[in-house]
Each structure stands twice: as structure tokens, then as C-alpha cells.
């Protein structure tokens, strides 16, 4: 049983080898009113985006749920003795119709949301949660799973089957299968309430992020690169407003905070951005958050856990919240110490610039601006100087080329031959070194109204070997600002790093070679590992020489500029580490509260004061806009996982360094074979030890960030 609502779409469940495919041809149009039909067209079928409408989903959900209920009922009511084949494997086969419908719905609501989709999401999220509970809490179904589990030692199962059986049994127990009927009813009510609250949170956040700061005097945009101003102009035109519009999303706000010389505008834009969801208006999320945290604590207690963090972390590499806290607090003091140094450098520069005029004190809306000035002063480099060499199409090609060098993956663009949900979406056929089709890759790179903020990877179809071989269909979704007509899209070095990061997730999917769908999903604190590692190849000499070319002249990025970038490699690591870690620490502390009773704003302030948060920095995600935590359970008590994964990532990059080359084939092969292709078929901590010969060393992470290692 591997439905999207049981296995979160963001959990990595990677790509598969299959027979060579015929040349792509336009997909046959599915029946416009039936989203439950198997996908048709090339590559064993593709999503029918071009015919999807909101009105199709209610009957499709009803039909898909009915299919799932019939499949599960047949397993639960089977009168034969329970076996691995008629119970566990039968569950693995179930739910394919609902998988397809939820895939289409999830992508539409994340990428193309409208009031109609928002209404559907609000209606159907609780219903789907109820269906999940109906299955997980079915006593007859669990009795059969338990019967197979109790006889596992004598069942003649291989290692993968044993692991699937054990993980299936553990998941049902963790989700309440052994509760009494009254407790099960209480649990299902909580889960449905949470599903509804998650939808409300996401919709309010999207509404706040759809607003913008309007500018009618171009002088206020002094210092902002022309390409960014052009994007602001285009945003205003789309809104049918005069002048320029700075949308309330990170991709639009950060360039203004980095380059804009008008301090009052920087402050206004910064305040609007950090107060998303926290304005006491119709889009305020604090009451929703308080309800979510309380319901999570109630659920954890019902399931026998001391708190939500313990419940969520049982199936992770860290397991114990204390281990995650220990890692975070190992890094926190060094990061705060570095911030003090960074602020001192910025303040000195600001004081020197004052020259008799009123001096300023560095505030949060000044950090990126003066950080950029210090970068320029210390290393004679600024982000605007780099942008002409980081043209989006070249960076996409760079990510593909690196994957080819490391893993033999090849990419052929087939845009126009398969349906897409938005005209700017591009599609590639991915093949392995033998020329066999292994995946389709969809690239959705630009911000637009109705698309959630940030960057993410999604899976439209996960690889598997059972019950029938299936190749992967994956996507990367970014929010780059689209350039004016006829202009190239120039992205920052940070944006390019994000592109490589998300593509690392996609590579994980493309390389997966698992048999059972239930062994595809990796623990939350492993999820970010492949993506963190993949960032490292962006600044390798081979990639820069081939793809960091000036968008006008085609000239390679000068070696002197590369040297400056390398020299500045650990620059600003205090800021980036503190803004992230503050969010991760607040997340964990919030979900350790036994009764879950909390005032989100007050708790946030108290926690930051307790850990000594520098006043010049705000959390990367304040609680009122923390979509990782409150639009689903996915990253709740799990935001630490980026640091956990990056610790493994830094240590893995050290393995390539020790081998003498970032392109060392033996290391890449071992990395792919032991860690990337195996899903969750083996314990991930054991797999890492098999790859590295030991546990990951946090000193590699500290060294990478330029922090003291002792």
C-alpha cells in the first residue's frame, strides 16, 4: 500500500531501469472526465495534464477510494491463512488508482492553485485522512499482518521481504493499529482535524505570499540589478499596476535586501516578508498553529509516546530527539560566534561609510546588504558580478552533465511531445549508460500566481520492480523570476546551488532500483542527503569551465573570479547556519512540549532568547509561515534533518576529496550502488557505514562551513 497520502510525495522514492522505449510521440488524450484511468502515451504512460480540471476530482476521488476499499477488503476478509504473498504483497499492489488521482491533485494544488482547488483541498484532505485511518485501524487487516509477522522466522523470506514485513507491521503499530475501538475513533478524528488545519495553513500562507510591495518611484530601486528590476516590472504588469511590484516571496525579496540602497524600502519589504501569517488578519496562522501543536501532542499521548517529536522520530536515523538536539547544539555556538564576527565587519564598514552623517546600527534588513558590501571589500566580489555567468539554461545543462559524468545518466529534451500542466514546463527523457529509459524529468522553474513558494522535488510516479516494473517520473520545481521577453534568466550563485540541490533529489529517484514500493521511502533525516551532496559539483572546475559562461560573450568565468568565490567559500556561513538552525531548534523544542499547549509567538520569542539568537538575524522560517511544519506532518520535529543530512553530505564529499577527484568513478559507483539506488531496502545507518567504513564525522561539516572543529 503505497499511496501518496500514506507515503508523502516529498519522501524520496527514486528511478528504475526498464526496457528501451519507443521514440516519443504525442500522448493520446485520456478521457476528459476520468482521472482514474491508467496513464497512456509513451514511457509506459504519462500524466494527462492537458485535460485536468477541478471538476474532475470529486468523482475521481470517489471512484479511486472505492477501488482501494475493495482491494483492502479482499485482503482483510481472505479466509485463507495469512501469508506474505496474500497479505503483504497484496497490500503493495493496492491503491494504484488513488495514487494516480492524488498525484494529479497534489501537483495542481502546489503548482497551479486556484480558489476551486483550494476548496477541493479543504474538502478532500480530511476525507483522505479518514480513508487512511480506516485502513490502518482495520482490526481484521492488522490481524493478518500480525499473523504473518509472528511467523516471519519460519516463512522462508529473503532479506528484502523480511524488511518489508517488519516495516509494514511497525508502521501499522506506530499509527494506532493496536488501539481499542474508542481510541481508534479518537485518533481518526485528530488526524482528520489536522488534515483540515494543514490545508487552512497552506492557503493562508499562499495568500500572504501572493501580495506585493508596490514601488512607483524607480529611484527607490537604486542598486537593484536591471534584470531584477525588469522582473519587478513584469510582476506589476501582471497585476495591472503601474511601476514595480516586489512579490512577498523569498526569490523576489532577497535581491532587494541584498542590493537595494533605499534602507526604508528594505525595511518595509523585510517586515512584510517576515510577518507572513502574523498580522492578526484573515491570513494570520497563529491560532491554526496552536491547534496543530495541541492535536499532535494529544495524538502522541494516545499512541503511547511522550511527545510529538518522539512519535515522529521513531522511524528516523536519529531515532531519539536528544541525538538531533545534540548535533544542533554542537554546531550552534560556532555559528553564533561567526555571526558576531560578521556583524562586527558589517558595522565597521557602515561606520566608515557614515563620514559624519548619522551612523546606523546593523538591523536584520541590513544584513544581506552590508554582507554583500563586506564580500566586495574583503574578496572584491559581489553577486551582481557573478550573475552574468549563471544563465539558467546553462545551469540546467551543467546539472545534467555532472550527473552524466558521475552516474552515466543522459538527458534528451522531449518538451512538446508529452502533456504539461503549464506552458513553461520542460520535459526530458532520462536514459542509463546502456541507453535504457529510466525516468522522465519535468522542470518547472518559474514563479507564478498560485504556485507555492520555495523549491522542491516531486514524484509523479515512483520506480518499482513489483508487481510490474515501473520507471520513475520526477520533477524539480523552482521559483526563479522570469525575465522580460527576449531576455536571459540570470540567477545568483545561491540560486544555482538550489538548482543543483533539488536536482540531487531527482538523481536519487532516477538511480533507485528497488523491488517493493514499500521499501522506497527513506527516513526523513536521509531525504536531504543526496541533494546536499549534489550541491558540491556546482563549483568544480570542469562544471564552471563548461557552463559558467557569460550570457552575452560566451566567455568563461575568469579564473580570478573563481578564485575569489573559492576564497569566500565560507563567507557568511554564520548567517546561513544561524537562520536555519534557529528554525530547526524551535521546531524540535515546540514538539517536545508534552501537552502541546502553546502561544506560538511567545514560544518563538522565548526559545530564541534562551539559545541566544543574534538580534541581527531572524529565523529562516518563523513559526507563522513555517510551511515545512504546518502544511503537513512531513518535517514536523524533522527540520533538523537538513543538518543531519548535511553532516553525511560533507563527509561524503570528503570521500571524493580523499579519492583525489570529485569525479572519482569508484567512489561515485559505490555511492550510487550502496546509498542512492537501494531506497530503504537496508538500514540507512548501516548502508552509510558500508559506504564510508564508519559513521559520518561532524568535523567534515564544521570544516566545510569554516567553523572550529574542536
Task: Summarize the model shown.
Helices cover 53% and strands 6% of the residues. The protein is an alpha+beta fold and 710 residues long.
Mean pLDDT: 93
Strand portion? 5-15%
| Shape designation | globular
Uncertain parts: 2-33
Termini separation (Å)? 47 Å
Q: Helices and strands: which structural class?
A: alpha+beta
Number of helices: 28
Task: Return the CATH class of the domain at 49-205 and 289-307.
Answer: Mainly Alpha
What topology, given as strand order, has the largest sheet? 3-4-5-7-6
The biggest sheet amounts to: 5 strands, mixed
Q: Tell me the total number of β-strands.
A: 7
Question: The CATH topology of the domain at 49-205 and 289-307, please?
Answer: Neurolysin, domain 3
Provide the CATH architecture of the domain at 49-205 and 289-307: Orthogonal Bundle
Radius of gyration, whole Å:
25 Å
Helix coverage percent: 40-55%
Family: Belongs to the peptidase M3 family.
Protein name: M3 family metallopeptidase
Domain Peptidase M3A/M3B catalytic: 261-706
GO biological process, one term: proteolysis
Describe the structure.
- The protein has 710 residues and is of the alpha+beta class.
- Among the domains are: 49-205 and 289-307, Orthogonal Bundle (Neurolysin, domain 3), CATH 1.10.1370.40; 212-274, no CATH class.
- The protein has 28 helices and 7 strands.
- A 5-stranded mixed beta sheet has the order 3-4-5-7-6, sandwiched between helices. Strands 1-2 form a two-stranded antiparallel ribbon.
- Strand 4 (426-431) and strand 5 (437-446) form a beta hairpin.
- It is globular, with a radius of gyration of 25 Å.
- The two termini are 47 Å apart.
- Residues 2-33 have low confidence and may be disordered.
- Residues 261-706 form the Peptidase M3A/M3B catalytic domain.
